[in-house]
Amino acid sequence: MPRRIIFEFITVGNVLKVSAICEDTGTEVSIVGDPRASQKELEMVAARKLRYVMAKKDAEAQQHRRGIDV
User: Fold this and answer.
1) Cβ distance 1 to 20 under 8 Å?
2) Spatial distance between the Cα atoms of 2 and 21, rounded to a whole number of angstroms
3) Phi and psi dihedrals of 29, rounded to 5?
4) Using one digit for the tens of pLDDT, what is the confidence trace for 21-63?
5) Can you give the pTM of this predicted structure?
6) Distances (CA, A) of 35 to 7, 10, 18, 24, 41
């Protein structure tokens, strides 16, 4: 799971695009949110999505492993 996350906020028309990037892996996700929402709320949603995507990638990598763990 990401220990340190970089957040980027970009206004696109009437919405706010929030990107969350894991410093360790470079994994990046984006969400689109209401610009009236608090920065903390948007960061929490983006971080939750980042953790979800990273966990899904880890599960897929484990599923495709060959051999036996000893």
Assistant:
1) no
2) 9
3) -130, 160
4) 999 999 999 999 999 999 999 999 999 999 999 999 988 888 7
5) 0.83
6) 15, 10, 10, 28, 11
